DNA sequence: CGTCTACTCT
DNA sequence: CATGAGAGTAGACGT
């Protein structure tokens, strides 16, 4: 057995002086605690003792003080910065459930000495962590001291051999030595005029004080006089400097049993202290299972048990579900009225759980809480349950509360909001090649896992609800984000019909053109074949072989992006071919061959995934494949849109897009009368802007002027600066600044608004959309000016982009519901930020065109009108 | 398997 | 000092 005893006072002094000042964001000093905790982490990770105890001195006087008034006299008072941390450390140790050893009348040393002796008798190996050399006297066959050397970065292992080498003495000799030489720090006098060197010599010769004075006549001269004069002081010093080995400790080593120091409470406190380093380390060690509350549950295995569960479900309004879907089926843990139930995939299948659920009369009104409800909706839909009451998705709620985070999975959320470390599916089942099926794992383990995670979802909901209320986002969550789940699930399930043969033709066309271009490029380069797709190889050909001027470099070599190539176009005919090659290569790899791999052969449809928890501004994103970036700008790219067709010959695509939604939002947010006026009169906004800043009548605005105004309008939304605006327009930075100044002169409230947003972002640390969607921007208070500027641009753009996202999300819900209410067959199948596409039976076209315009335009009431343009056609290409 | 570069959209 | 917001994907390349 191994035990570790720590001299808490000594260690915290050491860490306090060894680590530079630090504090958390609330100004609480933390350096000493930080160092202390680091050592505890090291103990847990490396030493893994069976017992651990930390001893502290009490303020009350000890037997030494009673014997000697000046004991430890002359010591400075504990610095305030340390005193504050001392108290916090003790609280932390209590939360870590580490025994704090204190005893009135004794010092930490004495407690440690006594415990070390008790341990030694039991045959334990004991290690004492301290920065006080006094403890060396305790060293023995079973006792070592880990001495904090060089601050705290190293622990020197001090054993008998080490002491012999360092002093030429045994550990016990050190007591006698100290009696002679004293200890300045404890104000132990020793004998005046005897220091370390003489002391060591004397002890080597006589071993003990008694022996020394028995042979005092062997000494002579001044030294003898000093020894005789100091006899009383020496014995007193020995008493003071001898660590007691028999303090009255009535405890048991069992109380010192070491266990994981990271539990919900201690982790919470580490978070408050903002020890991110330490928290990330323990996160990775992943040894922690902190759900201490054992969750009892009922394992549903028989028809009878399932019938009972269904009866419970029929009598409730709320249910929390943790689910896991794989090829073999769906595993479920459920919480109903604080009782837990578990069904494995085999039971779900065999007992026909979902079929029975379908016939439950309250199935459509059950308020369901889960992590990732959109996928659960898919599962329900597959089972024929078409109406689902999505009450609370912990995944979306977690995203909403802090949409700039990287991940919102249950593990991350449980850690952040509950200070719990749980297992997630990835850890439970592995990923990639190592993925295993649930049925391959231990049944009991599996059941336990599902129930625990279900309990976590339930607990998480309580915390997230409170947070949503406190941040004013509950209404956004309830009226937009939750109802939207079903709309997105529906879009995912419906998919977008593809004209496969046309896509094949298109892709073949791209590929044959690419072949020709490849040959031409090799000829023009006068080279052997090289990989044109490799920026590295292309750079070598352009800038080394053909010696074209280097325009720009990347971190790793020559830049060959489109800006660079366009500047080189007149230097060599190869450049134009490369631009064409790039364009075609992108079109084929991503949209030709690329899309082909996503076409489901059975239905000839593409099924994209829509993600609600990715974009920090509140937008949706689309992936696998991304249908929100299908080419449109160039004619060749736009051809791709011909393959996106209605679901059958009796259908037509109806498309509706918001006109200038972001600038309208800006007009609303800023309240600028001039900008509002432009929209109220439904003028062409870029022409109007040009008229304002160039001081010409609307009719006299030239194409160039309109183009420049358009660039300014868009630039504004993104916080663009004069430098790049000038670059874009091919004018000087000064001229560009002049345009921006004139813009703000004509739209003064836009300028005010932007100033206010930045100010607010700096003060609050976040910005909000019209519906209260919040985004934290920590960059605003960075010390790095570049980051602050980037933060300002986010602060400017997010309320605009975010409000536009709110509006179209509301519109999606309205359109979806209206189509249902009017019992139309038309279906919403795609959203592209400001655009909705509806697959519509031809006989519903007029009705749908009218309805979609109404619902989109009526989604929000701003201080400017919102207008929607509607188009219909036989392919996405025709919707312009 | 992760990072980099380049390119597509609103 | 860098210089336009928000996304996703393919291919190359290095580990």
TrEMBL record:
Keyword flag Nuclease: yes
Domain 5'-3' exonuclease: 1-259
UniProt enzyme class: transferase
Name used for this protein in its record: DNA polymerase I
Function: In addition to polymerase activity, this DNA polymerase exhibits 5'-3' exonuclease activity.
Record organism: Acetobacterium fimetarium
Swiss-Prot/TrEMBL keywords: DNA damage, DNA repair, DNA replication, DNA-binding, DNA-directed DNA polymerase, Exonuclease, Hydrolase, Nuclease, Nucleotidyltransferase, Transferase
EC number: 2.7.7.7
């Amino acid at each position: 057995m191994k035990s570790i005893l720590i001299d808490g006072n000594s260690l915290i002094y050491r860490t306090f002086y060894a680590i530079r000042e630090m504090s958390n964001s609330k100004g609480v000093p933390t350096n000493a605690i930080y160092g202390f905790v680091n050592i505890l982490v090291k103990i847990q990770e490396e030493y893994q003792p069976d017992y651990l105890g930390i001893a502290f001195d009490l303020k009350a006087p000890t037997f030494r003080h009673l014997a000697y008034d000046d004991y430890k006299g002359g010591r400075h008072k504990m610095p305030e910065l340390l005193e504050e941390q001392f108290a916090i450390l003790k609280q932390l140790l209590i939360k870590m459930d580490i025994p704090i050893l204190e005893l009135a009348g004794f010092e930490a040393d004495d407690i440690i000495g006594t415990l070390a002796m008790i341990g030694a008798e039991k045959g334990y190996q004991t290690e004492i962590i301290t920065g006080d050399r006094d403890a060396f006297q305790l060293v023995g066959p079973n006792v070592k001291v880990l001495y904090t050397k060089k601050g705290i970065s190293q622990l020197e292992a001090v054993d008998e051999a080490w002491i012999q080498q360092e002093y030429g003495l045994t550990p016990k000799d050190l007591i006698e030595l100290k009696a002679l030489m004293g200890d300045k720090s404890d104000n132990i006098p020793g004998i005046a005029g005897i220091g370390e060197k003489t002391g060591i010599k004397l002890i080597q010769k006589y071993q003990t004080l008694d022996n020394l004075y028995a042979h005092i006549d062997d000494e002579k001269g001044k030294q003898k006089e000093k020894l005789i004069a100091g006899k009383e002081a020496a014995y007193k010093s020995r008493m003071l400097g001898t660590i007691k080995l028999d303090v009255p400790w009535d405890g048991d080593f069992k109380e010192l049993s070491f266990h994981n120091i990271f539990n919900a409470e201690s982790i919470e406190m580490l978070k408050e202290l903002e020890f991110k380093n330490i928290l990330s380390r323990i996160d990775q060690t992943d040894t922690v299972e902190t759900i201490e509350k054992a969750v009892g549950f009922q394992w549903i295995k028989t028809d009878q048990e399932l019938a009972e569960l269904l009866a419970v479900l029929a009598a409730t309004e709320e249910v929390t579900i943790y689910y896991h879907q794989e090829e073999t089926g769906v595993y479920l843990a459920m919480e109903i009225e604080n009782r837990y139930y578990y069904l494995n995939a085999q039971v779900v299948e065999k007992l026909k759980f979902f079929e029975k659920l379908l016939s439950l009369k309250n199935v459509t009104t059950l308020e369901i809480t889960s992590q990732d409800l959109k996928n659960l909706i898919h599962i329900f839909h597959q089972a024929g349950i078409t109406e689902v009451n999505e009450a609370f998705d912990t995944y979306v709620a977690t995203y909403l509360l802090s949409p700039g985070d990287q991940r919102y999975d249950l593990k991350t959320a449980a850690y952040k909001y509950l200070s719990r470390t749980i297992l997630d599916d990835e850890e439970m089942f592995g990923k990639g090649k190592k993925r295993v099926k649930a049925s391959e794992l231990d049944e009991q383990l599996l059941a336990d896992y599902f129930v625990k995670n279900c309990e976590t979802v339930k607990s998480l909901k309580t915390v997230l609800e409170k947070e949503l209320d406190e941040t004013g986002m509950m209404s956004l969550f309830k009226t937009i984000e939750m109802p939207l789940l079903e709309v997105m699930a529906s879009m995912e399930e419906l998919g977008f019909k593809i004209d496969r043969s046309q896509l094949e033709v298109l892709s073949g066309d791209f590929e044959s053109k690419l072949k020709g271009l490849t040959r031409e490029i090799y000829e023009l380069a006068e080279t052997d074949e090289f990989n044109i797709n490799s920026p590295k190889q292309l750079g070598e050909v352009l800038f080394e072989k053909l010696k074209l001027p280097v325009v720009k470099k990347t971190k790793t070599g020559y830049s060959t992006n489109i800006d660079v190539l366009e500047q080189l176009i007149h230097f060599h005919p190869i450049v134009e071919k490369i631009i064409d090659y790039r364009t075609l290569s992108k079109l084929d790899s991503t949209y030709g061959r690329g899309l082909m791999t996503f076409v489901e052969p059975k239905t000839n449809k593409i099924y994209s995934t829509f993600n609600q928890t990715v974009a920090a501004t509140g937008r949706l994103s689309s992936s696998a494949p991304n249908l929100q970036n299908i080419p449109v700008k160039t004619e060749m790219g736009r051809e791709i849109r011909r393959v996106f067709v209605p679901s059958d010959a009796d259908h037509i695509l109806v498309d509706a897009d918001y006109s200038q939604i972001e600038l309208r939002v800006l007009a609303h947010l800023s309240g600028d009368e001039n900008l509002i006026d432009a929209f109220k009169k439904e003028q062409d906004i870029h022409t109007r802007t040009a008229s304002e800043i160039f001081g010409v009548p609307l009719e006299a605005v030239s194409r160039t002027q309109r183009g420049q105004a358009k660039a300014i309008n868009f630039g504004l939304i993104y916080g663009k600066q004069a430098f790049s605006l000038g670059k874009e327009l091919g004018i000087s930075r000064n001229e560009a600044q002049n345009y921006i100044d004139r813009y703000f002169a004509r739209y003064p409230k836009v300028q005010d608004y932007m100033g206010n947003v930045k100010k607010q972002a700096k003060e609050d640390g976040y910005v909000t959309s019209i519906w209260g969607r919040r985004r934290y921007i920590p960059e605003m208070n960075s010390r790095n000016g570049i980051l602050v500027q980037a933060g300002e641009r986010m602060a400017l753009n997010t309320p605009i982009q975010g409000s536009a996202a709110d509006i179209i999300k509301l519109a999606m819900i309205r359109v979806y519901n209206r189509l249902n209410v009017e019992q139309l067959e038309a279906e919403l199948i795609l959203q592209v930020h400001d655009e909705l596409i509806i697959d519509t039976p031809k006989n519903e076209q007029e009705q749908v065109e009218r309805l979609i315009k109404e619902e989109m335009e009526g989604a929000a009431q701003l201080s400017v009108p919102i207008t929607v343009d509607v188009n219909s056609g036989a392919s996405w290409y025709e919707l312009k």
